Amino acid sequence: MKLLHVDSSVLGGNSVSRQLTAEIVADWRNAHPNTSVEYLDLAVDTPNHFSADALGIKVGVQAEPTEAQRRENEVSERLVTQFLAADVIVVGAPLYNFTVPTQLKAWIDRLAQAGRTFKYTDKGPVGLAGGKTVIVASTRGGLYSTSEGGQAMEHQESYLKVIFGFFGITDVRFVRAEGIGMGDAAKAAALSAARAAIAVATAGKAANQDQAALAA
């Protein structure tokens, strides 16, 4: 089994989402010892924001791609190939300004490729990356899950559910630590709740585990 570990926080060693993704990966490997891990740090290896050059080769408007288009296409192909090769993806997704970090959004923009992670049909879009398990370490300074107003303000977990679902991934598990900016007691309670969620998220099978075992 292949696991892709993705971090996106810019806070380095002070990041709660990085702490949680590390614990998720460690617990997953304890429960599934034959798992190999590849690591992607989007705060260090950040793809450029999506641009006309990144789209250029995909739309095939011109006969010869420019050097910039080739370079951006290489980045997109590297990232989508890495993503598609993984059975399990662990994503660190802190809440920045009510949504995900721009680094994480830039990565997702590179994954969203027609013919690779989705396709359009006469009945609408169809995801092509199904059979994967995604575990998201969701961190928030405030409380958003406990009220309708808070839920309306967050475009982090809701966005990730939609985009991974668009790719055809139905097994998306969230490990949430919220209220971490509301004092030491609130942070301790949030981490305790998150660790209980980690135990549940990592104990179960991966979405494609049975099929992978048969193939092996």
Structure description:
It is a single chain. By secondary structure, this protein is α/β, with parallel strands linked by helices. Helix content is 44%, strand content 20%. It is built from eight helices and seven strands; from the N terminus they run βαβααβαβββααβαα. The chain has helices at 16-31, 52-59, 67-85, 102-111, 148-153, 157-166, 184-203, 209-215, and strands at 2-7, 36-41, 88-94, 118-121, 124-127, 133-140, 171-178. The strands form two sheets. It has a five-stranded parallel sheet, sandwiched between helices. It has a two-stranded antiparallel sheet with strand order 4-5. α1 packs parallel to α7. The radius of gyration is 18 Å and the shape is globular. The chain starts with a strand and ends with a helix. The relative contact order is 0.16.
